[in-house]
Design brief:
Structural class: mainly alpha
Low-confidence stretches: none
Strand content: under 5%
Radius of gyration: 28 Å
Mean pLDDT: 78
Length: 99
């Protein structure tokens, strides 16, 4: 029943928005879309910039963005546990080109 009510509200809201869009002045509508698009683009750019700067800053201070331990911490932990990671052997593939 709540889904039916939500659907009816959505249809009524969509119908009223379409009626307002149909009756709107094209000049005012174009100006509003232009300003709204600029605000959305600016907000998106700021969010991407914050993510990139935050990720780079986290890497610079030797913290992982994903929450996983860093390579140095993982190596130190493995060495103290007696299970130091080994270097991969330089084996050749079937084609003889190496890895």
């Amino acid at each position: 029943m709540p889904t039916l009510i939500a659907g009816a509200v959505a249809v009524i809201l969509l119908y009223s928005l379409l009626q307002m869009f149909r009756a709107a002045n094209p000049v005012v509508l174009a100006r509003a879309i232009k300003i709204g698009g600029g605000v959305v683009a600016l907000a998106t750019g700021a969010a991407v910039l914050a993510a990139v700067v935050g990720g780079a800053g986290g890497a610079l201070i030797d913290h992982s963005v994903t929450g996983h331990s860093t390579v140095a911490a993982a190596t130190a932990q493995a060495t103290s546990a007696g299970t130091a990671p080994t270097e991969p052997s330089n084996t050749t593939s079937a084609a003889g080109t190496g890895w």
